[in-house]
Known about the structure:
Layout: H1 2-46, E1 53-63, E2 67-77, E3 90-99, H2 104-108, E4 117-123, H3 130-135, E5 142-148, E6 153-160, E7 163-167, E8 170-174, E9 177-184, E10 189-202, E11 211-225, E12 231-246, E13 251-266, E14 270-284, E15 287-302, H4 303-322, H5 327-346, E16 350-360, E17 363-373, H6 384-391, E18 392-402, H7 403-418, H8 422-442, E19 447-449, E20 452-460, E21 463-466, E22 469-472, H9 473-483, E23 515-516, H10 521-530, E24 535-539, E25 544-548, E26 557-564, E27 571-580, H11 588-597, E28 602-605, E29 611-618, E30 623-624, H12 625-648
Antiparallel strand pairs: 1-2, 2-3, 3-4, 4-5, 5-6, 6-9, 7-8, 8-10, 9-10, 10-11, 11-12, 12-13, 13-14, 14-15, 15-16, 16-17, 17-18, 18-20, 19-20, 20-21, 21-22, 23-30, 24-25, 25-26, 26-27, 27-29, 28-29
Helix pairs in contact: 4-5, 6-9, 7-8, 8-12
Amino acid sequence: xxxxxxxxxxxxxxxxxxxxxxxxxxxxxxxxxxxxxxxxxxxxxxxxxxxxxxxxxxxxxxxxxxxxxxxxxxxxxxxxxxxxxxxxxxxxxxxxxxxxxxxxxxxxxxxxxxxxxxxxxxxxxxxxxxxxxxxxxxxxxxxxxxxxxxxxxxxxxxxxxxxxxxxxxxxxxxxxxxxxxxxxxxxxxxxxxxxxxxxxxxxxxxxxxxxxxxxxxxxxxxxxxxxxxxxxxxxxxxxxxxxxxxxxxxxxxxxxxxxxxxxxxxxxxxxxxxxxxxxxxxxxxxxxxxxxxxxxxxxxxxxxxxxxxxxxxxxxxxxxxxxxxxxxxxxxxxxxxxxxxxxxxxxxxxxxxxxxxxxxxxxxxxxxxxxxxxxxxxxxxxxxxxxxxxxxxxxxxxxxxxxxxxxxxxxxxxxxxxxxxxxxxxxxxxxxxxxxxxxxxxxxxxxxxxxxxxxxxxxxxxxxxxxxxxxxxxxxxxxxxxxxxxxxxxxxxxxxxxxxxxxxxxxxxxxxxxxxxxxxxxxxxxxxxxxxxxxxxxxxxxxxxxxxxxxxxxxxxxxxxxxxxxxxxxxxxxxxxxxxxxxxxxxxxxxxxxxxxxxxxxxxxxxxxxxxxxxxxxxxxxxxxxxxxxxxxxxxxxxxxxxxxxxxxxxx
Length: 652
């Protein structure tokens, strides 16, 4: 019995001695490594910005057997580039480091496995931070607890203190924030989750009066260092609700369920990125605007080129901020950026919007866009126009605008902001959407497809196509680059003669393909046939007359008259006329209002008190077939609106 007690006592003594020895060794190891880690941290902080330095100093380090009491100070270090108003002083942190392998606080929290240390740190109350501690009611503004394993993995919890204060009628109410996470030194991997319940700011008594509140904010990060030296992983930000009121500007906005997320991934050669934005219901001045989303993707980005571009850009930025630019070095850096850009394009990267969409209870509008790129050869010897044409491999874009959605938003705004009755607002909104639809057709930016206006653009193999109309690459990019001021004329290009319109060919020149110098009966008839409009020919006083099927216009008579020159036999003018028989004559007030609003047509009463709508078209100087078809379509659309106005208007 005595022998077993002695053995047990010996085991306990050996175990206790081993624990104390391990604890002493761990404390010594922590002290030795802390200086190395401090130097590494200061080296990284010094590179953050050239405008000033950041430095951490160890102010106290008292090591005992089981724990260490330490204090550190974080300060700004001025240099000749620093702003004059940069704050002085130091932010000090107190740290209690419990030595492993079994720190008592770690054990009390259920961490049974051996740990290198448990570290409790918090911002210390000093003269520099008296005002901050007053806001937090003497609670340290930042407190963190961290468990450090022998492998270099750290798990931590940080708390930002709540703040609630009021001054001169303005107030701040901040719930505080909790951030939990882990860091793996070997993989340079970070996982973090942050939660904030509320931030409310009432600045209604300030010079710029605003009231704002943010509720239910969460942040998540899950990243690691990738093989190309760029962090890979996911990051997300979500906010349950945002409210903003600016009484001076009469703005009241609320937003539910806002979200933002970025995903970075890689394979053996490339980096891919996706950024997604999402909003719940948005309300502005009590008008519900709906909800939306946007997904933007970058794919097949050469990993090494991305890293090189990032490093070179950061070097240039630091040099600029420090005002130490070296022109020779800058040229080398720009050349390096161009080389990296070439490597990026050589991988045929792609950019896509998939999609941007906006949705209400009445419909959804959205844009899908894809751009595939290539590396143009011999860039130095190409013009900007040629570079654009060769660098763009493919474009595919589709825009869908919901007419009921737009009409509903316009009507709601008119009721809330302009005080119109719902009936009048709906009527005006309907007219607005009809005008928008007609203009989309006129300028060939979209086609009417039931309840939607649909615009499609594609580009491939040197040819663009906008809603069925082909656009050669040289014409497309010369227009775009010219609008951007990048399409300067070459030495061998002739300048336009003063006074000569770009749309008018010089005397004796061959007219452009698809451009009519006058109106041909056969050409116009063919266009009408393409539009699905039946036409019967009659002879008129000044040329042929086509009697058209009224279709959905509601007209009792719809015709197209050619006005021709007796000597040249050319028909330079077309007049499209719609006549309406109504139970009661249309009022002059309604006609005047119509003529004020619709500038492409004119309305009047004929000698039989019938309402008449007319539009003139002229071919002098040339008119494209596509443009003529757009004008014809526009008149048909406007004639439908006029029919409603004519039938609804009472006689006075």
